[in-house]
Amino acid sequence: MDYYIITGGSRGLGEAIITELLDKDKTIFYLSRTNNLTLEGFARGKHASIYYEECDLSEVSQLKAKIKSIFSKIDLLKAKKITLINNAGIVDPIKNVGDAIEEELSLNVKLNLLAPMIMSEYFINETKEFAGEAVIVNITSGAANRPIAGWSAYCSTKAGLNMFTNTIGLEQGERENKVMAIAFSPGIMDTEMQGVIRAAEKKDFSSIDQFREYHQKGMLRAPSFVANILVKLLSSSLENGRVYDIKEFV
Questions:
Q1: What are the distances in angstroms from CA 66 to CA 81, 213, 223?
Q2: Which DSSP string corresponds to 175-241?
Q3: Where is the secretion signal located (predicted)?
């Protein structure tokens, strides 16, 4: 049996990843603020096991209990592979430095960086005695590699997530790759986040016209397409600590 723990699984890329993974030989746990009953219907049709854990991932103090609750439902003796996919993220605040407020910045850092760090911390701790494969996937962004006006928080947290992934890979490599950690950059997708971006004001986001053009010209990838590539990647030989970009596969 393979187990998957997916944050932000109720919509967007998280929902698409779960849909791609649904299979009778897999058990999926997804954490989000809202449940997705459609996913549960799909799971029943495929005789797959899926469990919803209500969780606001920005409330980082509750993450340890959530991870422990999930692992209490995993039979480590029968499990072949356990994968954590840190998918939840937020682009807000879309504002120039000096215009954002403390609460907006704090939420961005908690959801984009601190939550994946804490989830990974407890995941590695819980799998120390696990004899099978343990994998961490951090969903990142091309924004980690270049500054974008109005996205200082998003660019910075995704850059931090990449370095965090690199460091796990280095550490685990020194321990004979007990846990495999990668980051995956999915490119621009047709999700609610893109809707938030297009709704920004030009004074806050100077690249707004470019992103509106992506949508108008049908240049946004479908989450299902991205999910299919990621799932295929996870079945291949991975390089620990590496940041993968979808451009390598399309």
A1: 19, 40, 26
A2: TTSSSEEEEEE--SBSSHHHHHHHTS-TTT-TTHHHHHHHHHTT-SBPHHHHHHHHHHHHTS---TT
A3: none
Residue pair 53/62 in contact by the 8 Å Cβ criterion: no
* Gap between the Cα atoms of 42 and 47, Å rounded: 9
Closest to 112 (Cα-Cα) out of 52, 156, 152: 156
CATH superfamily of 2-239: NAD(P)-binding Rossmann-like Domain (3.40.50.720)
Q: Which of 3, 4, 154, 244 is catalytic?
A: 154
How crowded is the C-beta side of 11, counted as CA atoms within 13 Å?
10
Q: What are the sequence ranges of the domains in the chain?
A: 2-239
Amino acid type, 200: A
pLDDT of amino acid 167? 98
User: Contact at 8 Å (CB) between 89 and 14?
Assistant: no
Chunked into runs of 10 residues, the chain (250 residues) has average pLDDT values of 96 96 94 93 90 96 96 94 98 97 98 98 95 97 98 98 98 88 97 94 95 94 98 96 97
- d(CA 152, CA 147) in angstroms, rounded, equals 7
